[in-house]
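Listing S7. Sequence submitted for prediction.
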Amino acid sequence: MNLALFDFDGTISERDSFLLFLKYIGPLHFYRSCFILLPQIFLFFLKRYDNHDLKEDFLSRLIKGRTENDLQRLGKSFCLKKIPAIIRPAALEKIRWHRHQGDLVCIVTATPRHILEPWCRAHDLLILGTELESDRFGRLTGRLEGANCRGEEKVRRIRAAFRLDDYGTIHCYGDTGSDMPMLGLAPEQNRFFKPFR
């Protein structure tokens, strides 16, 4: 069996699924939060504010206090109503090709796992994503559980989930510099950068 690893945002999708989800669950609150967080967003684009911290800023304003069950319910609705419209057809075709070949396919994404898990389950795909911290009552704290699933963290998660030597070969698909460590897990001929544009 071979292993196919796909980034989601920008690779499979045409838009950022995390921001689209935040807008989906509360458009007015989302835009108000964007306005309040303008200084952090500006510093982020200047590469002076960390992606991890900005993600927690948005989570604290828009998701903190919700239960995991509530997030799963919202994720299911979001995947049904919004995700199909942003999927790149060629990416979905390649995923189906891998599944037809008998390959194990896993989505490796910085988007919180709960948000995209229903879409992955519907397509019989595994998912490794950013995990969200919950308190002892099952309510989200607005913080990440561990590191944001991007860059070298993608590689760490993949190695923790799979024994890579068990697979005949590895295929990797990504679209940003933060996907390069993951692409490095595949032989050069099986690394695909911005393949579905």
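Caption to Listing S7: primary sequence and predicted structure tokens for the chain studied. Strands lie at 3-6, 104-112, 126-130, 132-134, 140-144, 170-174, 191-193. The first helix runs from residue 17 to 25.
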